[in-house]
UniProtKB/TrEMBL annotation, chain A:
Gene Ontology terms for molecular function: glycerone kinase activity; phosphoenolpyruvate-glycerone phosphotransferase activity
Pathway: Polyol metabolism; glycerol degradation
Cellular component terms (Gene Ontology): cytosol
Gene name in the database record: dhaK_2
Keywords: Glycerol metabolism, Kinase, Transferase
Subunit structure: Homodimer. The dihydroxyacetone kinase complex is composed of a homodimer of DhaM, a homodimer of DhaK and the subunit DhaL.
Record carries keyword Kinase: yes
Native source organism of the sequence: Streptomyces griseorubiginosus
GO biological process: glycerol catabolic process
Catalytic reaction list: dihydroxyacetone + phosphoenolpyruvate = dihydroxyacetone phosphate + pyruvate
EC number of this enzyme: 2.7.1.121
Annotated protein name in UniProt: phosphoenolpyruvate--glycerone phosphotransferase
Domain DhaK residues, every copy: 7-328
TrEMBL record, chain B:
InterPro entries: DhaK_L_YcgS, DhaL_dom, DhaL_dom_sf, Dihydroxyacetone_Kinase
A Pfam family recorded for this sequence: Dak2
Species, as recorded: Streptomyces griseorubiginosus
Coiled-coil regions listed: none
The protein's name: Dihydroxyacetone kinase
GO biological process per UniProt: glycerol catabolic process
Listed Gene3D superfamilies: 1.25.40.340
A GO molecular-function annotation: glycerone kinase activity
SMART domains xref list: Dak2 (SM01120)
Top-level taxon of origin: Bacteria
UniProt keyword list: Kinase, Transferase
Keyword flag Transferase: yes
Domain DhaL: 5-195
Length: 330, 199
C-alpha cells in the first residue's frame, strides 16, 4: 500500500503540523494533540469539545471554529484520545459557561471521555456530555457495544455549535445536541476496506464485485456482504434501513457522506438516487450536504444520514459557520 | 513476599512480551477489530517502563498505580482505560506496604479485575480480556504457573465465542472463529507475572 507518509508513528503529528500551517485561525498543540480555535475562550459562551481517533478527517479538527467546535482532540488512527487531551482542551476553552463533550459511541471514546469529565469537574469546569449513536446497522444493541456514532456527529456538532454561539446555556445546548442525535439515523456501505498506516494492508478482504452493507467508520467489516449493487439499489437499501427505524414527520437534513476514496462524481450520482427514494417515500428534504465529512481513511463507499428537524433546528443548521471543513454564511 | 522490584520486573517483562507479540496482537485485531491492538499496547508499556525508571516508586502499590495511570494517559482506545484501571485498582488494593504476600497479590488482582468488569460492563463469555483474567485470578491460589496456563486457555477458548462487547460485537455472528486480541494480551500480562516470579 502506497501512502504519502514518512513513518506510521508520526502520521498524526505530521498532519497536525500541516494543519497548523494551513490554518492560522487555529491553535494547534502538536505535542499534546489539541486543536483549539484561536479566540477561545469566548466570553459568556458554552464551549464544545469533541474528539476521537484520527482517520475520519475533516471530523473533528476540521470542524473547530466559530459556529461549531471550540476544540478537538485527535487520537492515534482509529484510537480514542486520552483523558489528558480532553481535560487540556476543556481548560483551554472554558469561559466559565461550561463545556459540552460530544462523544461518539465507541467503548474507548466513552471510557476516556468519562474519565476526562471527572477530572475536568475536579478542576472546577462544568461538563455535560452527549453521546452520538446513529448507526442503524447495529441492530442487536443489547448484545453489542450499542449503535455507533457516525454521520450524525456532524449534525450534532454544527447545530449545538450554533446554539452555543447564540449564547444559550449549557443545559440547553446539551438538550439540543441530544435532540439532534435522537432525530438522526445513518447507514453506510463499503466498496473496499481501508488501510491503517500501522498495519499497511487492508483491514479486511473484500473481493472484486462485492460490497459490505452496514459498515462503520473504522474499517471493520459490516453485517452483510453482497454482490455489487447499482447506485439505485444501494440508495434503496440504505434509505430503507433508516426508514425501518424512523418515520420522519418533519423535513430532514440529508448527509450523503463519502468514506474517503469515493469521488464526488459518484457521491452526487448517489445523492440523486437517495433523493428519489425519499421523494417516493414521501419524506420532505429541508437541506442536503454532499461530500467527504466523516471518513474512514481510504475506504471507498458512502453513508446516508437523515436528521429530522423542526424550525428551531433548521434555523441553527443555517446559522453561519466558519471552520476548515464546513463554512457558510460568513 | 514480593517487593516493588518484583512488580517492576513484572511490568518490564510485560513490555518485552507485548513488544515481541505486537504484530500478532494487531493481526488478531484485524478481522474483528481495527488492527491496532499491538501498536497501542506497545506504546503504552514502553511509556510504563520509562516512567517507572524515572520515578522509581518504592512500594508494590506505587509501581502498579503509576503504571496504570501511565497506560490511561498514553494508550487511548478502550484498552488504555481498561488495562490502566486493572493495574491502578490492583495497586490501590495493595496499599502502601513495602512487601506483599502471594495471597494479598491474588486478592488485589481480583479487585482489579472486578473494577475492569464494572468499567467495561463485560462478563465472562463476552469474548473480552475478562475471559483470560477471571480464570487466571481463580487459578492464582495454585501458583503463578497455573494462572498463566488458565489465562492462555481462557484466551484460546474465546475463539468460538460471539463478541458482545467492544468493536468486535458489531460483527455479530461473524466474530465467531477468531481469538480475541484483548484476551490474548491479558494472557501475556499474566505470563509476564509468572516470568517475574521465575515460574
Amino acid at each position: 500500500m502506497r501512502m504519502i507518509i514518512n513513518v506510521p508513528e508520526t502520521v498524526v503529528s505530521d498532519a497536525l503540523r500541516g494543519m497548523a500551517a494551513a490554518h492560522p485561525e487555529l491553535t494547534v498543540d502538536v505535542e499534546n494533540r489539541v486543536i483549539v480555535r484561536r479566540d477561545a475562550p469566548v466570553a459568556g459562551k458554552v464551549a464544545l469539545v469533541s474528539g476521537g481517533g484520527s482517520g475520519h478527517e475533516p471530523l473533528h479538527g476540521g470542524f473547530v471554529g466559530p459556529g461549531m467546535l471550540s476544540a478537538a482532540c485527535p487520537g492515534e488512527v482509529f484510537t480514542s484520545p486520552v483523558p489528558d487531551q480532553m481535560v487540556r482542551a476543556a481548560a483551554a476553552v472554558d469561559s466559565g459557561a461550561g463545556v459540552l463533550f460530544i462523544v461518539k459511541n465507541y467503548t474507548g471514546d466513552v471510557l476516556n471521555f468519562d474519565m476526562a469529565a471527572e477530572l475536568a469537574e475536579d478542576e472546577g469546569i462544568q461538563v455535560a456530555k452527549v453521546l452520538v449513536n446513529d448507526d442503524v446497522a447495529v441492530t442487536d444493541s443489547l448484545y453489542t457495544a450499542g449503535r455507533r456514532g457516525t454521520g450524525a456527529t456532524l449534525f450534532v456538532e454544527k447545530i449545538a455549535g450554533a446554539a452555543a454561539d447564540e449564547g444559550q446555556p449549557l443545559e440547553r445546548v446539551a438538550a439540543i445536541a441530544r435532540q439532534v442525535n435522537e432525530s438522526s439515523r445513518s447507514f453506510g456501505v463499503a466498496l473496499s476496506a481501508c488501510t491503517t498506516p500501522a498495519k499497511g494492508s487492508p483491514t479486511f478482504d473484500l473481493p472484486d464485485g462485492e460490497l459490505e452493507l452496514g459498515v462503520g467508520i473504522h474499517g471493520e467489516p459490516g453485517r452483510e456482504r453482497r454482490s455489487m449493487m447499482t447506485s439505485r439499489e444501494i440508495a434503496d437499501f440504505s434509505v430503507q434501513a433508516i426508514l425501518d427505524d424512523m418515520s420522519p414527520r418533519n423535513p430532514v437534513l440529508v448527509l450523503v457522506n463519502g468514506m474517503g476514496a469515493t469521488p464526488l462524481l459518484e457521491l452526487y450520482g448517489f445523492n440523486a438516487e437517495v433523493q428519489r427514494v425519499l421523494a417516493e417515500r414521501g419524506v420532505a428534504v429541508a437541506r442536503t450536504l454532499v461530500g467527504n465529512y466523516v471518513t474512514s481513511l481510504d475506504m471507498a463507499g458512502a453513508s446516508v444520514t437523515l436528521c429530522q428537524v423542526d424550525e428551531e433546528l433548521l434555523r441553527l443548521w443555517d446559522a453561519p459557520v466558519k471552520t476548515a471543513g464546513l463554512r457558510w454564511g460568513v | 513476599m514480593f517487593d516493588a522490584d518484583f512488580f517492576r520486573r513484572w511490568m518490564t517483562a510485560t513490555a518485552t512480551s507485548v513488544d515481541r507479540e505486537a504484530e500478532r496482537l494487531t493481526a488478531l485485531d484485524s478481522p474483528i477489530g481495527d488492527a491496532d491492538h499491538g501498536s497501542n499496547l506497545r506504546r503504552g508499556f514502553t511509556a510504563v517502563t520509562a516512567t517507572l525508571e524515572k520515578e522509581a516508586p518504592d512500594t508494590p502499590g506505587g509501581v502498579l498505580t503509576l503504571a496504570g495511570r501511565q497506560l490511561i494517559s498514553t494508550v487511548g482506545g478502550a484498552s488504555g482505560p481498561l488495562y490502566g484501571t486493572l493495574l491502578r485498582r490492583t495497586g490501590k488494593a495493595l496499599g502502601d506496604a513495602s512487601e506483599v504476600s502471594a495471597e494479598q497479590l491474588a486478592e488485589a488482582l481480583r479487585a482489579g479485575v472486578e473494577a475492569v468488569m464494572t468499567l467495561g460492563g463485560a462478563a465472562p463469555g463476552d469474548k473480552t480480556m475478562i475471559d483470560a483474567l477471571v480464570p487466571a485470578v481463580d487459578a492464582l491460589g495454585s501458583g503463578f504457573a497455573a494462572a498463566r496456563t488458565a489465562a492462555e486457555e481462557g484466551a484460546l477458548a474465546t475463539t468460538p465465542l460471539q463478541a458482545r462487547k467492544g468493536r468486535a460485537s458489531y460483527l455479530g455472528e461473524r466474530s465467531i472463529g477468531h481469538q480475541d486480541p484483548g484476551a490474548t494480551s491479558a494472557a501475556l500480562l499474566i505470563a509476564a507475572l509468572a516470568e517475574a516470579a521465575g515460574e
